Amino acid sequence: LQAYIEVAKDGYQIVKTGWQTVEDITGGEFSLHRDFFARLDGISPVVSRYHGLSKVLEYQQYILYEVERGRTLFRGMPLKPGQRQALETYYREVLRQSLKILTQTENTVKPFYYQMEDVERLRIIDHMYKDIRRLYLQVKRHTSKLAFLSRQDDGSQRSSSTIKSLYHETP
Length: 171
Fold this sequence. Notes:
Layout: H1 2-26, H2 31-38, H3 45-48, H4 51-75, H5 81-109, H6 118-151, H7 160-167
Helix pairs in contact: 1-4, 1-5, 4-5, 4-6, 5-6, 5-7
């Protein structure tokens, strides 16, 4: 029971942080960009102006949108508690992975965090961009499947295997 309480607390904190970010973005604050770029002081101009940095942040925003969209969809669906928990776990893992990529990107650009040349930093940023883009495409595909299932309103029972396939995908 204590383990479930801890997982719930962690999940709540992730959701709270993610939701606040979504609110900031939709409210026009774009604090994610502002805060991120404010921490780029002391970084090589070549690295700080690199388009890959803004692309990583852009895809982070897309992921936050898809996670919120997916959660809204499955909350409105008649699912078993275990299925709801599995879908929530899936979206929580997507958030965890996207934040990990964002943190790795931030640490890569900090001149005092890793000793490397700018060219190596740019190569790593490109890799982080590919990773976050791949994660976005996966969560978008997953949420699109969920949206398709939620639109099926012919009264037929949704196939348990179809729903199960959604939460057994690995982000």
